[in-house]
Amino acid sequence: MQATPRVAQALRLNLAHSFSTCARLQGASGLKINADRLWETLHETCKWGESHRYGEKTTETGMARLTLTDDDARVRRWLAAEVEKLGCTLSVDQMGNMFARQPGKLKSAKPMTAMGSHLDTQPRGGRYDGILGVMAALEVLRTMKDNGFSTNFDIGIVNWTNEEGARFPKSMCSSGVWAGAVPIQKAWNLQDIHNPDVKLRSELIRHGYLGELPCDATSGFRLGAHFELHIEQGPILTDSGRSIGIVQGAQGYRWLAFTIKGKDAHTGTTPLSARQDPLLAASRMIAASNDIATRHDALASTGILKVPSNASTNTIASEVTFTLDIRHPLDDVVQAVQKKCLEAFTRIAAQDGKGVTFDWTLETDSPAVRFDKGCIASVQEAADTLVGPNGSMPLTSGAGHDSVYTSKHCPTTMIFVPCKDGVSHHPTEYCSPEHCALGTQALLESVVHYDSFRLSQGTEV
Amino acid sequence: MQATPRVAQALRLNLAHSFSTCARLQGASGLKINADRLWETLHETCKWGESHRYGEKTTETGMARLTLTDDDARVRRWLAAEVEKLGCTLSVDQMGNMFARQPGKLKSAKPMTAMGSHLDTQPRGGRYDGILGVMAALEVLRTMKDNGFSTNFDIGIVNWTNEEGARFPKSMCSSGVWAGAVPIQKAWNLQDIHNPDVKLRSELIRHGYLGELPCDATSGFRLGAHFELHIEQGPILTDSGRSIGIVQGAQGYRWLAFTIKGKDAHTGTTPLSARQDPLLAASRMIAASNDIATRHDALASTGILKVPSNASTNTIASEVTFTLDIRHPLDDVVQAVQKKCLEAFTRIAAQDGKGVTFDWTLETDSPAVRFDKGCIASVQEAADTLVGPNGSMPLTSGAGHDSVYTSKHCPTTMIFVPCKDGVSHHPTEYCSPEHCALGTQALLESVVHYDSFRLSQGTEV
């Protein structure tokens, strides 16, 4: 309904009819998700945490459902009740991760095929990031139950705790603990950013979400696969007129922090040749990093630049700090861009006046991730059936997701659907009912396809 | 004593002997200032306001003598007493400007030849900026009295109120009122930056410095000429091995404030081609402004750049603001640099991704000033006698001074002496005893020479 003209056209071309009534949401499974129920359920549960109204419609608000707040606890209790209605077994681990498990026909002890995402949001977040993935998973199970359909292997839902890291500052926090990348004591001790007396663990206890099950990929709740439906959070699908992104993996990225030191000086009395101007040098460095990234088809971005608070129009600052975020699907390219940037920065530091000095630290190093070929093939198959070969495209996730951590321990991939103008982490974040439904149908088709694939590999897979 | 090797060498070459004993401070006047008395008086009076100690010596502190504070009032009362001891008449105008007048031989009613500067400092200022000019003027009058020397026309001292604009935010505030460039009500209503209840006028009253005399170049205390000795506040004299700067005028300058608007976006999910990155654009603009200024032999400087306070490493900012300070001795060049910058900025705004928009405002427009040829000739004559033709150089003032305003109404020039490393507006600001003495002797020679020049023009001049 609010899709851009290009997307609307793409949908018409690929889907032959509007599927606002779900008439054409038909894949190989023979099942059809209920688009209206999905939309209503998603927005009904947004009453817990809705905030930042920007329009008159009921759905025209953002969300402020920070992890383990009262509103987050309310939606958790609601989800627990819903999955139990469906006949699922619910497990909660020591990080409050919620695992709902629906038995398959094989009654296999093998780990379930999971559909996971998160119900927490940024303080000025939207109604789709994470929420869509969990609500879609629920709709998939509801559709299966409506149709008396059972997968071969067990199937289920995961709600990962504190994905956003907005209240307790560690993104993908609990999938990180599950994957063994974040020590549980460190995660438990995370402090509420506004109240250091409140810890993540104390909030788990307060809401009754400190489970006994270890939060561990091998000794805790194991997963046979992890599929995550998510809004793209970027403009690529919209700009290319595609409606499904088949996520091949996650970009590698490195975050560097630079400090450029010069000397404060009067702008009127100091010749250019006598200056040591760190803001001029930083400006040239930022421009150079963009040029280098462009040549490597990579991303280089500066989000933060600081000059001292006593800066004035007629004083050259003595010191400037800035961040540099370098990304590419290949780690080698990330490294190459970093190397070229450091070489350029060294030249720039000596370039103007009497030169500046700089040093830098590596703040974050997140290597590239390749998702599982079998999972990707299942999503490709689902997309081909639903939107045809021109309706989908391979994408690499630019942002971090719980799936990056699950991919370390089980076959994983993600499905992206367009969000309006690529906007996320903002109240106006928007994914149309059509795209929510399409993504959910693709999720259903993918897990059904993957379930068959697992069977084809033998019941021991 | 703390002069750099190059300056020390220059002094040796030009002055034949060290003049730390003032043995060689001999110009055409036949008078010789007392360098020790000058140094001692200057630093003795810095007890009122000394702050920010940086070394062990008595003189190794900065100053925090903000205008019309108790310390400023103390040094004003001390100055009043000293000039009265010399036989001067003291006048105080409605802005608290202090005019000390010593009668000349002619008993002429013509306005006096003034030696002026200011006794107020920045909150983290030094012991020489402004203070040297007033103390040097006092030493000139003391030297004349010691020698029974009288000028033809009246001569005297001006202490201008609130030159720094650091407490009441208007630089060259009271010379500006005197020159008719700043309305007195506006100046009187200036608020203390830390306490809006305290106004400049209420502080004048509190200290007894709200005079009855109009603060006006024509209807108030008129000046026949204005000579100001000041530290250079830049590195040009030191770097060129000269010890006297003969100031030809003041640079024109324009202060522009730019706002660059883009769109916030995730650094990991937004391709470069889809971005509207205002920090990247601002960086390219700052770099371009420097390149343009270099080609025009002008100055272009950015002192302030701000990104929103919620900036993060992985978010492209939505808006960036920065300042641009363009300077050159010729207004035409200032205008040309501004024009070229705006043209370049327009190109840059469209250059990356989906482009950004920008607007700008002119915050300050200060046209170039040419000082008086007669005054300049007197300083040149003094310099040639004291340091020879290789010991001085013509300079253009890069900073604002009270002399810029006095030049609108009376023949004016300035004398610059080197300050260590070009540093000013900082506690470590330093002018050696030798340079303080040399500048003071040059001031004496200049006013005596100008006094003769006035006489040569007839007593009606």
Automatic annotation (TrEMBL), chains A, B:
Would the keyword Nucleus be found if you checked this record's keyword annotation?
no
Q: Which UniProt keywords apply?
A: Hydrolase
Give start and end of each Peptidase M20 dimerisation domain: 250-350
Cite a single GO MF annotation: hydrolase activity, acting on carbon-nitrogen (but not peptide) bonds, in linear amidines
Q: Which family does it belong to?
A: Belongs to the peptidase M20A family.
- NCBIfam families, per database record: hydantase
Query: Can you say what this protein is called?
Result: Peptidase M20 dimerisation domain-containing protein
Q: What is the species listed in this Swiss-Prot or TrEMBL entry?
A: Penicillium chermesinum
